[in-house]
Structures are given as structure tokens and as C-alpha cells.
DNA sequence: GTCTATAGTTCGATAGAC
DNA sequence: GTCTATCGAACTATAGAC
């Protein structure tokens, strides 16, 4: 059954081309060329460009989110009857994606670029796609943050979650911007170092939100800034 | 001289259409229609789609960055011989963009969406464009962070700056995701509230980076996480 | 399943009247 | 400056042979 291998080759090629040029910038011709097949065959396997795009996401997102949830549930199970440290929760959220973008063996690097682009894109197609794939996991981690950070409000847990994701997204894309702005002092590629700094930064931010209630903001807006 | 008004109308329309559909998704036809002019006139004023895109960015980026630098220099001048609080520095960085995206009177909302999309895009066109417009300001704020956060390394200042920007970018786009994930508890549109939380979160993260040196990371990677 | 060939659109850009 | 009209190229998708 050569069909499955062909499907995978097309998905790999599409992932790479979509990552480099975006949905509208990518062409079925260039994807076909990159996959070493002809254009008609892509339509045979995936119907339309739109569906192909969706399948590229679905293939990876399921895997990553499974690993995140697995880590998260294991953390809470092991910490019974207490709760795990915040650092571990944030690590469970961020490590799978950061690692995927830096895995030299697999094509995940391209998916990481693609996801980084789509996550902040404002066109309806991207927004719907991201929501479908990632809103479920967001709810679970927001809930976990609330259980682990004492005194944090629901709203602050949501803001904190979105901040963590906001920090992590450009890291996934490995733009090399940190290395550039630091004349090489920052190493984009070092998973351990990147992850440690991100976790440190994010947890400090979340705990600060937990220490400050909403009423403080509203009552003393001038002093709060 | 109706030419200038026409130019502005085309730029406004292009800003809106590019923000909604991206560079490749936007068409010269749709921009012309949105501007109330014909397609040929756009080429008369801006030569090509590529140049039009560049001019849309240049028009706003200069203005925003001027306001950021103005605030920053004023802060340091006023604090002499000391330095201003970190909170003020981060506010100077973030307020102009957050406000622009929420200004109901001007078209800045569309530019904010456009910038959010381009900032994390991985195609070469977007990367070059962002670097040209924003690398200069980045260097100045990284320098300011180093002067204001005691004990922070240059690398951590760069990571911290990029984290702050990473958090702010999705806020600019006003996707409504926070409101959605919190069942309305978070208000994306409230500039004051968004800015206060972001500043609180970011400053806590930066100070945490300042307290932890690089050597700690490398020596005890297990405990650090 | 995989190919070639092409239909049917839509694109960016230009020529030329006014 | 602004318009109409259109060129040539590129696009997605499909039809049909093998």
C-alpha cells in the first residue's frame, strides 16, 4: 500500500511549504514539486488546499496535546493529596512544543514555524483552526494554574496562560532574533536554556498576578502602574 | 491637490485588507474596491503590491517608535541622577502599541492586527520588514532594561525584552481569545486593565531573571526546573 | 494510485484615453 | 490624477488515460 507513504510525503511537503510561505503564499504546484508527486495526486488524497492545510495541523496537534495532558495528569496524580509546583505545570505546557521545534530528526521544526505563524494570524481561517486544535488544552491548563497558584483569580489565570503562550510562540519559530539582538550571547537552539528562562519568567509573572487582586488594580490605577 | 488624500485612502484600505487577509491573501482588486478607486491608480501611486505593503508599515511604525523613544528618554532624564522604575520603562514600551490597537477613532486598530500577524510570521518578507522597522527600538529598550534591573545579564535582558513583546503582540491583535477562554471575565478592550496586568507580569519576570544568574542554570539544571 | 492535460478563474501589472 | 480595458501569467481544481 504505497498510498499511505505518499500521503505522508505530501503532508511533510505541505507542512514545509505552508510554514515558509503561509496558506495563501503556498501553491499546490510547489507542494507537489516538494513532495515529488504531481498536482492532481494531492487533490486525490486531500480534496482541496483547505483540507490539506487542516490535516497538516491535525496530524501534529493531537500528538503534542496528548503529551501535554499526559504530563499534566501525571503531575497531579503524583502530588496527591497536594498539588505539583507551578514550575512543573508550566513545563508540561511548554516543553512539548519547544522540543518539537528543535528536534533535528523530525519534520516538527516546520510545524513549529507554521503554528507560530497561525497562532497570531488574524484571518478567520487561522483563528478557527487554532481554536479547534488548542482551546480544549487551554481550558485544562488554566484550571491547573488556578489550582496551583494560591489566590489567583480566574481572569488572571487566563491572562497568565495567554502570556505564557505568547512568550513561547516566537520561541517555537526559532527566528534567531534573540541571537541577533544579543550578538550571539543568546542561543535560540539550546532547549534546556530556553525552557529554563521561560519557565522562570512565566512563573514569576503568574505568582505576581496571584499576589495582586483585581480590586487593587481598579482602586489605585495610578499607583499600580 | 487631491493626490495626497487619495494616497491616504489607499493606504487606509490596504492596511485594513492586509490585516484581514495577509499579504498573499489580499488582492489589489479588493484594496482598490475598499479605497473606492480603481486598480490602476494604486499602481500609479505605489508601483507594486510589495511597495504598498512596505509603505503601510512605514507610515505607522515611525510614529509609534517615536512616541516610545520620547517616553523612554523623558523617563531617564527626569530620574537623574538615578534611574526610573522598571514599570515605567515597560509601560513606555507597551502603551503606544496597546493603545493604538484600541483607539476607536483611528485606523490604528487595523495596523495593530497587521503588525501582530507579521511579527510572528516566518516568511522572509515579513521578517525583513519587522527587522527594519523594529530592531533599532529593540536595542534601545534592551539597554534600558539592563540599566534598570540590577544584576541582569545582557542575554537575560534580551530574553526578557522578547518575552515582553511576545506577550504584547497577541494583545495588539485583540482576538477576543481572553474573553472567550474566561467566559467574559477578561475584557480584551480595557486598555488600563490589560496594560496593568501585562506590566505587572512582565516586571516580575524580568526581576526573576535578574535574581538568577546564568551559572545557576547551567550548574543545577535539574533543580532549576 | 498515479499520471498528463487543461478547463475556468483570478491575479498583478500596464497601455492609453481623458 | 484618474479612469477603462486588457494582457500574460499563475492559480485551484477536474477530467480522463493508464
List keywords for this structure.
2 domains, 225 residues, homodimer, disordered C terminus, DNA-binding, Tetracycline Repressor, domain 2
Describe the structure.
The structure is a homodimer of 225-residue chains. Chain A is an all-alpha fold. Chain A folds into 2 domains: 1-47, Orthogonal Bundle (Arc Repressor Mutant, subunit A), CATH 1.10.10; 57-224, Tetracycline Repressor, domain 2 (Orthogonal Bundle). Helix content of chain A is 81%, strand content 0%. Chain A contains 12 helices and no strands. Chain A has helices spanning 2-25, 28-35, 39-46, 49-79, 86-102, 108-120, 124-148, 154-173, 177-181, 191-211, 214-219, 221-224. In chain A, helix 1 (2-25) runs parallel beside helix 6 and helix 4 (49-79) packs parallel to helix 7 (124-148). The longest helix of chain A is centred in the N-terminal third of the chain and has 31 residues, at 49-79. The radius of gyration of chain A is 20 Å and the shape is globular. The N and C termini of chain A lie far apart (63 Å). Chain A binds a DNA duplex (18 and 18 nucleotides) through residues 2-3, 6, 27-29, 37-41, 43-45, 47-49.
Secondary-structure blueprint:
Two copies of one chain form a homodimer.
Chain A: H1 2-25, H2 28-35, H3 39-46, H4 49-79, H5 86-102, H6 108-120, H7 124-148, H8 154-173, H9 177-181, H10 191-211, H11 214-219, H12 221-224
Helix pairs in contact in A: 1-2, 1-4, 1-6, 4-5, 4-7, 5-6, 5-7, 5-8, 5-10, 6-7, 6-8, 7-8, 8-10
The structure holds a DNA duplex (18 and 18 nucleotides).
Amino acid at each position: 500500500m504505497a498510498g499511505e507513504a505518499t500521503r505522508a510525503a505530501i503532508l511533510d511537503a505541505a507542512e514545509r511549504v505552508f510554514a515558509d510561505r503561509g496558506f495563501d503564499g503556498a501553491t499546490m504546484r510547489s507542494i507537489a514539486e516538494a513532495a515529488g508527486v504531481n498536482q492532481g495526486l494531492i487533490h486525490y488524497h486531500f480534496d482541496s488546499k483547505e483540507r490539506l492545510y487542516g490535516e497538516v495541523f491535525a496530524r501534529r496537534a493531537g500528538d503534542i496535546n496528548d503529551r501535554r495532558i499526559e504530563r499534566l495528569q501525571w503531575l497531579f496524580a503524583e502530588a496527591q493529596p497536594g498539588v505539583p509546583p507551578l514550575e512543573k505545570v508550566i513545563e508540561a505546557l511548554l516543553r512539548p512544543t519547544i522540543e518539537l521545534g528543535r528536534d533535528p530528526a523530525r519534520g516538527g521544526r516546520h510545524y513549529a514555524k507554521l503554528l507560530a505563524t497561525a497562532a497570531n494570524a488574524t484571518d478567520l481561517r487561522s483563528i478557527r483552526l487554532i481554536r479547534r486544535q488548542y482551546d480544549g488544552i487551554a481550558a485544562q491548563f488554566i484550571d491547573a494554574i488556578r489550582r496551583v497558584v494560591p489566590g489567583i483569580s480566574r481572569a488572571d489565570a487566563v491572562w497568565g496562560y495567554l502570556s505564557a503562550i505568547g512568550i513561547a510562540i516566537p520561541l517555537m519559530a526559532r527566528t534567531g532574533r534573540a541571537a541577533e539582538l544579543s550578538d550571539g550571547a543568546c542561543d535560540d537552539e539550546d532547549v534546556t536554556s530556553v525552557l529554563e528562562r521561560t519557565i522562570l519568567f512565566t512563573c514569576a509573572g503568574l505568582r505576581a498576578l496571584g499576589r495582586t487582586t483585581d480590586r487593587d488594580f481598579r482602586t489605585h490605577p495610578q499607583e499600580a502602574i
